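Hi R.,

As promised, here are both runs. First protein below:
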Amino acid sequence: MKKDKDIIKSVYWLLFGFIMMLIFVMVPIRSDIFTSGYTEHPVNFSKDWRMGGQKISHIQSVMAGEHGGQVILEKGLPTRLTEKDSLCFESQNTNLSVFLDNVEIYKFTSTSNLTGTSTGIVFHEVGLGSLNVRKTIKIASSCCYEGQKTGRIMNVYICPPSDYMRLMFHRMLVPCLLCVLMILFGLIQILVYFSVIDKSTLPFNILALGTTSLIAGTWLFIDTNIMQLLTGSIYAWRDMSKTLPFWVGYPLVTFFNSTTVKQSSIYHHLSFWLSMVFELSIISARYLFNLDMAYSFSLFLIPYFILIMGIMVIIAIDNANYCRIKGIVVKIRDIYFVLILLLVCGLVDLVRDYTAQIQTDVQGLYTRAGMVILIAYMMFRFLKWWTKDHAQIQRERFINHALQYALSSDSPENNIKAMLDFMGKELEANRIFIFEDQKTGKFRGSYEWCREGLKPESIELIYLPYDGFLDKFYDTYVESGRRLIVSDIQQVKASDPYFYDLLKNYKVENLVIGALQINGKLTGLCGVSGAPREKLVDIAEIINLISYFLAQLILQREEQKRLFYYNYNDALSGARNHMAYRKFMESGLDMSAAFGYMRAEILGLEDINREKGYDAGDRMVIDVAKTLMEIFGEANVYRLNGNVFVCFGFETEESYFENDVECARRMIEKKDIKITMGSAYCVNGTTDMEIIFNRVDELLQENNNGNLV
């Protein structure tokens, strides 16, 4: 049946995969996925501009800082324009004005912000329309801050603004996807960290790794300028892009330190205060020395990255020396290589940006590549650890949950049942059972759990002999590394026909058995049957681990029974004592249901004690108690004092109860014991036990008077 279900599931998944392939591959191919979707194809307007009568090949090659801080660029508009067309372009750290035939139609001036007066990349849109064909467009560009050597116009197009945004998205798609990958990886790692209860089981500090990836991904995503294009905000994203990178080093060092054996805490403090000092330094330079971050950013970030790299090199050397002294093999050399590669990529980007050797508005190309390599490698490491230790983690989780059930109440009996219920559901088994040593050479079934829909097999009626049967299985269990797995009952058909027939009669498909031991002595067996075959090995390990706790619960149960007996049973007669009677009357008796109440008094007990001795009197008490417990049940007979017993009967009809009372009287009198009894039966229960007590007292008084006569 299970095999048929597995085949059906496989067919569903194959069909599902085929449908997904059609949706994600065939549907886009047969639609407009390869069309541009532009309203009008954007016209590249970046070439053949003129500056002071001199023709320039490409507009973004002109730096305002290299021409006295201000340049005027001009070019004639094309002969064809639509009403939707605009002059769309980017500026980098420039103030600018746009003129149409010497009439100013657009102006942008930077404002003071956290980074200074520089702006970074700013997107502009100047409406044109069909009436402005062949007119001359001029862009007056000037520097934002003193000593600026940059300041340029880039990516000039004539097209509708929506087409320009789409064009920029296409151009920055790959960098954005890489940054999103970093951010998602960071968030996943952080979520995993907070979802793991026992952080010590993690292979490294995934919170630090996730934070590093989140900060770096956010910084590089802002650097693509997509957020400015989407939101229109300039300075918010610029402030973040210049202050956020100085906090990459702290979680990065923390993560790297967690991969080492020594894991010295000094590096956490050092990297944190290093980040704090550089962050405060660049901000102080901005306000105290009017040093714009467009210029100072690389000056501070390059030494910051170099120092972070130096700390990580020191950590690696320190860890290598520690491992050499302790004789431990260093297993993180590959992490050294990946992190050094990342830092080198970051330094290359910073140097290229600082020396202005790139003609683009998107920096961080090599840093993104380095971060993706780091993420891919650490994901591989994490998945490898997860795959390797998943079974162990699952077992520990199982044991921890099982222990919660083992301690869920003060009743070992209820705790055992709760544990079996938890185990059965978690292990997807059909049945779980426990056999206990009866001290008679046989093991009897004591507990059974079965899956919903199955009927219990009355396991308490099954007795298994130890000699010649269980002893063989126990020897096999020990020899096989304390596990006994019967994956198919056919494998025991030839070696043990009796065991095979037993399993077959109870429709057992497979079986895992564990031993319950106390002080090294076999006291019971725990078995799991009907579990998925792929889980049998793990179940054997789990049973081996949990058997100790089951054995301890059984031991506690027996100790609790012993204490209960001494606390609530009369030491002489074995009947329940007066304390048990009070407790039963307070909370145990259901007075809304039918019940019978009988009080019996031994007559002449004091005379027997005086004339024949206390031993004779004790034998009389014991004989009466045995007779009453035999008829009414051990749990329903109470000895209130020396010669008074109280019995409860829960027969469904009064005649049955009266027959039990009369039977008890005859059996006791046959033993030459004089006794008087008074009883009352409550058909519909009672609301006042005093009425019952008074009625029984009256009957006892009548019987005593009759005996005296």
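And here is the second one, sequence first, then its structure tokens:
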Amino acid sequence: MVVLTDLTAKEHIIEAETEHEKQLSSDDILTVRIVQSEINQHIIGQIGANWRVSGVTDESDKNQYIVTQVSKVNVGSSIILELQCITLMIHRLSKMYYYLVHEGEFSLNTILNNIFKDTGFIPRIIGEVKTGVKMEFYGDGQNRVEILKEALELWELEFIINGEYVDFYTHASRKVDYILSDDLNMRNVTVQEDATEFYTFVRAYGDINDGEPLSTAGVSLIYEHPLASNSMIGKLEAPPLRLINNEETSSDANVIKEKLRQAAKDLVDNSLKLTFQADFLHMPDFPYANPRIADEVMFEATNMDYTTAVRIISIKTKRNGSGDIVEMILTFGDAPIWERHQANLDYAAKFVSDITSGKKQISKGMLDSAMQVATQLLMNVRTELKFTEFDGILAENRDNPDEKVFFNSRGLLISNGDEPQLAISGAGIVADAITSGSIDTKLITIEGTTGAFVISGDALIATDPRNPKKKVEIRPGTVTTWGGGFTAYRPDGVTSMTNGMLDNEYAIYAYDPPFISQNASGVNRIWQEGPFYVSTKGIYDEVGDYYTQNAYRFKHTGRYLLINFYVKVNNGAGIFVKVEEFATPAGIISFEPTAKGFVYNAAEPYGNFKIDLGRPTKKERSFYIKIKGNTQGTANSQFGIRFTKMALDE
């Protein structure tokens, strides 16, 4: 069954035959044939261009196609429609243009976001891509398909459409647990082997300028593939490889040499190109063998005595009106030479293990052939492995013998010249063995043992296991809390916010009414006159010492107490100002009383105190401000003070 969506967005389930050719990094080709039937009778006469098609593979298939051409044939009193369709993504991009010229240095993310803007499709970059590459120009009347093609070439990418997502890879691949064999599930196998540019040897030259002879190269090396020693193949030399200097060339000869060695290895190892095509047989006994684009799978053609690791790059499928597959033709290319023998063990060992453990069931009639295929694959890799008495199966990296992998009853162990380290056991994967790469949390959810800590997609969620209503969710640019709050610590270790509540109170409060010294008759020794608190020399003469202007309190949340003030004196009088702590909380050392003096006609009548209170304790503290006169002037000579700032500071 196929789903058609009309121009009013109404969906219609129909009975139709389909022929679908799906290719890696290319537009799909879909043909839908609709025969007049009881199911289709109500809609067949209305179907037209720009209708959409979905559910081609099955009901879970979210990929959408758009009808570009409708052919109608009358057979007697019946109607047969043939719809030619292309993917909705390609259709939309081909109808959207950038008219203005865009020049600059655009990253891959920027280009993909601009290509897919307002299309309904979301680009995703899977894995690592080429760095240091920028697109410098696009637009000027280009449609978005043209820009996409340039981006694919510039960054050397492949893509796969998955519903509303378009996934981009440097090398798209999916490890699978089935085997393709002409003794099991393949027929009519053909192989095309292109050896026109097949090499087993290359001389490589680096640190060389464009146009200069090879003899001027600062770095040179030879790379020879093991097949060069094969008497039937021998030494097949590639043209000299030049790594031309540019602005990104390192000044370190070792860096250049490593880059040159990798380039030479890639040139030789990838030089033999193979293409296969075969009919795939869907069988009830093999329900888990469901080929998809970019599957990497072991393939054996016994009629050609040929076995290799391949990647599916095209699938052409015919389905009947019920959606059952009646024909599937696979096209696949092989993996690089250096991967093939090593891949044999992965596929064969898992296949045999799943069969013997009962995870996979196949019919008795196919059992002998299936086991023969797997056995042959295992035999092919014996030269790559050592079967030891105590360590189990040992595999060594031919390019670096210090790198070893052990497989025995304990699990999978790895070594880089040191003591073997357990990487995988029956209990799971050991995280300590992971040294590089990334975990795609769109595909994997990471949970703590109590389920209280989860990373999934672009979100990190922590939940209180005792109270599920209390949780924190972190997404790019956003932190959201429920039932609690954020706690922050200052550099000195003191909290500035607790459970979402700010805990920094920098205010200083004065007592009201003022806490002013009085004489025996209850008369204030200091009074407010205009913008100043004032007193006279005559009152000072009665006291002979400091008397209080007021008392103040504050919560100790800052390191320093700041007091700025302005004084006035007349008729020869002077003034002294003092700050003195009182009622100090237990366990806290009081700050020393601090005083400043000013005389009549002082050139700078401004003063300030900056008192170190020590590490904040969050406790309430109090202090007096006191003043006194001097012995100069007359009894009526005034002295006063005005405060311009009182605050706590860091």
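A quick note on the second one: Residues 2-89 form a domain with the Elongation Factor Tu (Ef-tu); domain 3 fold (CATH 2.40.30). Let me know what you think.

Best,
J.
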